[in-house]
């Protein structure tokens, strides 16, 4: 029996919604770990997969379900934590780039005086 067909009983539909939301939550948590490690490449790759999952959730109407309403707060919490972590990492990278630029200027000045 297909989970996407019109013959889905409500319990099976709720179960498929739960699985899709579990998948989204798992991906967001993996993304959080990746960004904490500074793994921007895999973070970006996972973002594309998350976008696809979110598109399916919207398309199938999961956002209107009771299951989504139950999980919304937890998903928002993970997403908020993810945004904060990205902002922190971005700030750290910006500071490091500033130090590198300053170091390059110093080296350029010394090399011009030799």
Description:
This protein has 114 residues and is mainly α. It has one domain (10-113). 85% of the residues lie in helices and 0% in strands. It contains three helices and no strands. Helix 1 (10-37) packs antiparallel against helix 2 (40-60) and helix 1 runs parallel beside helix 3 (66-113). The longest helix has 48 residues, at 66-113. The radius of gyration is 22 Å and the shape is rod-shaped. The relative contact order is 0.10.
Low-pLDDT windows of residues = none
The number of helical runs is 3
Number of domains: 1
Q: What is the beta-strand fraction?
A: under 5%
Secondary-structure element string: HHH
**N- and C-termini, Cα separation:** 78 Å
Give the CA-based shape: rod-shaped
Radius of gyration: 22 Å
Major sheet details: none
Classification by helices and strands: mainly alpha
Tell me the helix content.
over 70%
Mean pLDDT: 86
Assembly category: single chain
Q: How many distinct beta strands?
A: 0
Topology summary:
Blueprint: H1 10-37, H2 40-60, H3 66-113
Helix pairs in contact: 1-2, 1-3
Descriptive tags:
114 residues, 3 helices, mainly alpha, single chain
Short description:
The chain is mainly α and 114 residues long.
């Amino acid at each position: 029996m297909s989970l996407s067909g019109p013959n889905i009983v409500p319990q099976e539909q709720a179960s498929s919604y739960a699985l899709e939301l579990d998948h989204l939550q798992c991906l967001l948590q993996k993304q959080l770990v990746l960004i904490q490690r500074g793994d921007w490449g895999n973070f970006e790759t996972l973002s594309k997969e998350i976008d696809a999952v979110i598109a399916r959730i919207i398309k199938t109407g999961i956002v209107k379900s009771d299951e989504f309403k139950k999980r919304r707060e937890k998903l928002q919490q993970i997403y908020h934590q993810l945004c904060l972590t990205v902002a922190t990492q971005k700030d750290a990278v910006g500071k490091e780039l500033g130090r590198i630029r300053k170091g390059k200027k110093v080296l350029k000045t010394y090399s011009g005086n030799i």
